Amino acid sequence: MGSSASKAALRATTDEPSEPGPKHLADLIQYINGTNRSVEHLADILSEKTRSSSWVVVFKALITVHHLMVHGNERFIQHLASRNSLFTLYNFLDKSVIEGYTMSTFIRRYSRYLNEKSLAYRLIACDITKTKRGTDGVMRTMNTKELLNTLPVIQTQFDALLYFNADPDEITNGIIHAAFMLLFKDSLRLFAAYNEGILNLLGKYFDMRKNQCKESLDIYIRFLERTTKWTQFLKVAEQVGIDQNDIPYLNQVPCNLLEALTQHLASLEEKNDILPPYSVQHALIPSIPNRRVVKASASRAWLEGNITLLYDYDVSDN
């Protein structure tokens, strides 16, 4: 690997209690975006940094990896996904400073998300946050079998992202703030794909076989539950200074949609005792205003009985 890239990786992960420098990150992006550039040694350096005993060094190494996953050449995340193991930080604890206890908790959670992001790439052969969106996008054009295989992978990755679960008063320094910002941007793009997959799934629901309907209904209910949790994540985002114009609005799901889905499955199973809990029926879904980062196009689809579907939206790459 080029000496300049090696130096940039080391300088991005020093023990100075500040986020990785933009210049060093830009140098690394430029390096891995170059043709025929090896990413293996760069990944090795950053992986080695995560074995430090300092929470500052480890956290900055994870942020650097995440930044390269998001902004770098696809070969980087492809290489990470090919590794048998990535980050084994579930026992990490820096006892050397008081702040280390709190930050170690978020390091363990953050590394879990990066592991799941890499695993998701391995399972579906793409970074779902970067796939084409819209009516002719990846999630809107999948067949039923592909959707039933892909949506649970997205759900697992989304779970790991929400598991970061930081309160505003815990985002106390530039390092954890930088990690949260990367997670926030991932959440918008991940949810965009997630939502589009659900729209596609619901559009196919009444033509599915009984077992597929049952699996799809379970996926949809889990989607509602995760969306409710996402509202808490977005509240934190607003409280830590993210522009309110960049944060989605949330509206309630029409109850008749979930009722129609459960009644259809009940008719296939010839029983009517499987309605979900009332709290699930009143979960929240996002409707996204037309703002600088998030673009909205209200989409209305009709299933049986003219049921109103979710709002469809796209997140810009800015």
Layout of SSEs?
Blueprint: H1 3-12, H2 22-33, H3 40-49, H4 55-71, H5 74-82, H6 98-124, H7 144-162, H8 174-204, H9 210-239, E1 249-252, H10 255-269, H11 278-281, E2 284-287, E3 294-296, E4 313-315
Antiparallel strand pairs: 1-2, 3-4
What do you see in this structure?
This protein has 318 residues and is mainly alpha-helical. It contains 11 helices and 4 strands, in the order H-H-H-H-H-H-H-H-H-E-H-H-E-E-E. Helices cover 58% and strands 4% of the residues. A two-stranded antiparallel ribbon has the order 1-2. Strands 3-4 form a two-stranded antiparallel sheet. The longest helix is centred in the middle third of the chain and has 31 residues, at 174-204. The model is unreliable at 272-282, 287-302 and 304-314 (pLDDT under 50).
Task: Fill in the keyword field for this structure.
318 residues, mainly alpha, two-stranded antiparallel sheet, 4 strands
Mean model confidence by pLDDT: 85
Query: Percent helix among the residues?
Result: 55-70%
Low-confidence stretches: 272-282, 287-302, 304-314
How many angstroms separate the termini?
30 Å
Count of β-strands: 4
The shape is globular
Using only C-alpha atoms, the radius of gyration works out to: 21 Å
Helix count from the secondary structure assignment: 11
Query: How much of the residues is beta strand, in percent?
Result: under 5%
Helix-strand category: mainly alpha
Query: How would you write the strand order of the largest sheet?
Result: 1-2
Sequence of secondary-structure elements: HHHHHHHHHEHHEEE
Could you give a short account of the major beta sheet? 2 strands, antiparallel
